[in-house]
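Hey,
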Amino acid sequence: MKRVIALLALGALISGIAQAADAPTNFQTHCASCHGADRLGGFGPALLPENLERLRKPEALRVIREGRIATQMQGFADRLSPEEIQALAAYVYTPVSPAPKWDEADTKASRIVHHAPGSLPNKPIFQADPKNLFVVVEAGDHHVSVLDGDKLEPIGRSATRFALHGGPKYSPDGRYVYFGSRDGWVSKYDLWNLTTVVEVRAGINARNVAVSNDGKWVMVGNYLPQNLVLLDADLNFVRAIPTMAAAGGKTSRVSAVYDAAPRSSFVVAMKDTPEIWELSYAKGAPVNVARTVLDDILDDFYFDDSYANVFGATRPDGNGVGKGQVVNLNQRAKVADLDVPGMPHLGSGIAFDWQGKRVMATPNLKEGLITLIDTQTWRTVGSVRTLGPGFFLRSHEKSRYAFTDAMMSPTAKDTLIAIDKQTLEIAGQLRPVPGKTFAHVEFTRDGRYALASLMENDGALIIFDAQTLHEVKRLPMSKPIGKYNVWNKITRSEGTSH
């Protein structure tokens, strides 16, 4: 009997060793299509120790087993054994050798010019209003469609780099749009000629891009390498800025970089160090960093109307509960805490007038809740219960409604709700295709129509009359994850992200 037990134990040990040895094969089979064959990132983030430092291994195991809600990350508990999942987690925490790099020479060598400056017509090749165009990011087959916002019809469609991430950013005149992909590619697209004009790879794994209000600079926030990359408007490399912490010795991934247009500066939040940076371009290419050192890491943020104050979401605590803080960029200090339960998604906040107050409203990634914050006192002054945890909140200065989703809810991901911005009552529920993810609203320039995304590979843009909430038409799309109106973006409409 003892011999049988010993043989069984030996067999289990050999099996475990074999499964561990198969971790690279399992990675290529199950992970490489999203995270890259070399683990340097693709649709999903790079799976390298440098990128996973803040993700504890028990959480990594849970993600591999169960996936991530509201992302493309699926669970593998039904295909991989517990031993294989353990081995796969150990594999992604193992350093790549030699260590991956991406420097100035790599960036310069990657630049691709599709159309030389001045070689394309200097006027739109279509009849639509160039300020009422939409760029629609279709993640299903990695394309963008350009939509005429008056006729609500597509006028062009182009292939993009794999897995665009973060909202595209427009030049001040609305002619060009800049896309950033997960794997670090930045593309400049000419909306008047419906074509990509130049591209460059600014990093291995990028977070997002920002375009200066004077149209001269593009800033790229990278996860890997851990830096900011400054490009000019034609995507020529200008400089790389390591994200070294004030205390020295530690760099950070970039959580978010946005243009603070009234301040003529880029504002940057760090993923791994409790700092906000501001880099001014008022007198030319941004060089010097003005730091605000905080007590807590700030993941994403929202500007108030003055752009002097940043409303930021902090990292969730051990119970998974996040919180918020107000940081004044003039004082270079936190000036208030925000009373926001759950996990506020402040990067998706909007502003509007309510009961004589200017308020910022934010959805919540953990609760079915919209929280209203007075932008003068920074106090929570109202809330709206929704159908479930949501990601986006959108409106328009000419609309009485704000629209939010419940895309983190397993039972209500298919429903948008319209909230009356004055009464805070739910005025309507939009559920066009039961069981299918439905989210992200953007308005036409005049606020008359609201466009929402059926986020499926065989999805659609579903267009509603923004006053009656009646469906107007559907445009088939391949997983349209976001759509962005030129006018609303370049004028910084109060109901959309900036």
